[in-house]
Amino acid sequence: MYWTLSPASLTMKDMPPIPLGVDLGGTKLLILAETPAGERTWKFPTGPAFTPADLEAHLATVRAELAPAEVSLGIAVPGLVGDDGVVGPCDVLPLLNGWKPTAAAVLNDGQAALTAYAAGAAPGATLAIVGSGTAIAAAIQIAGHRVPATELGYVPYGPQATLDDAASGVALLARLGVTAPELTERLSRHDPAATAAVRAAGEAFGAALATLINLFRPERIGLYGGTLSYRGYLTAALSAVDRRALPALRSACRVELAPQPELIAARGALLAGQSA
Question: For position 276, what pLDDT does the model report?
Answer without folding.
Answer: 76
